[in-house]
Amino acid sequence: MAGMGSRLGKNCPKGLVDIGQHKLVWYLLQNTFDIPDVRIVVGYCAEKVIDYVRSIRNDVTFVHNDIYETTSCAFSINMGCRDIDEPYLIVDGDLLLNCQSFRQFVNQTQDGKTLIGITLAKTQDAVFVELDSQEKNILSFTRKPVSKWEWSGVAYINGFTIESSEQFICDTLAKHLPLRCQPIDCYEIDTPADYQLALEHLGELGYDLP
C-alpha cells in the first residue's frame, strides 16, 4: 500500500480510494480480524493511511517504505515480512476480495505448504499463469499469451522470502515453480477500468454493506 496509485488517477493511495460506502483498505481489513499479526507497508500519504486504518483496527503494525517512489511492490513486501521466520500470507493492497472465497483460500493453507492465489483473468495489465492439466499447479507466469487465469496478488508462502531486488512479486515466485494454486474471486484495482469493474461487482462479494 506504499505506492502512489498514479495509474488509477484518484490522487490518493489506492487503499484510501472510495469503493461504495467505504475505502478499499476497509474491505481488506474485514477479512483479517482473525489474523493476529497484520502488517501494512505505507509510503505515499502514510499518515493518512495510518489514521484511517487505526480508526478500524488499532493493533496493525505499520512498516514505512520511505523510498516508495523508486522501489517496487516486491521491495515493500520484503520490508513487511523480512523478520518473519514462519509461513506468512501476503495480500496486495489494491485488491477487493470476495469474503467467502478468501476464507476458502486461507482454509487451504492449514497444511503449511506454499499456496498461490489465481483468479479469472479480467484486469487490464494481467500477469497470466499457465497451469498443469489438472489446474492444481502453476507452471509459469507470463504477460503473453493470454490465458484463462491470472496471478491474483494473494499468496501463502513457506520457505522463501520475496526478493527486494525484483520488480514484481511473481518474479520471485517464478523461481520456485511449480507451485500449488487455489482460485480466489477478487478484483485488482489498478486502472479506471479495473475500478469500474470492481464497483459493478461489489454487491456480490459478501460484505455487510449499509
Q: How is this structure best described in words?
A:
This protein is α+β, with helices and mostly antiparallel strands. It contains six helices and twelve strands. The strands form four sheets. It has a six-stranded mixed beta sheet. A two-stranded antiparallel sheet has the order 1-2. A hairpin with a 2-residue loop joins β1 (18-19) and β2. The longest helix is centred in the N-terminal third of the chain and has 9 residues, at 46-54. It is globular.
Summarize the structure.
This protein is α+β, with helices and mostly antiparallel strands and 210 residues long. Helices cover 23% and strands 25% of the residues.
List keywords for this structure.
single chain, 210 residues, alpha+beta, six-stranded mixed β-sheet, 6 helices, 23% helix, 25% strand
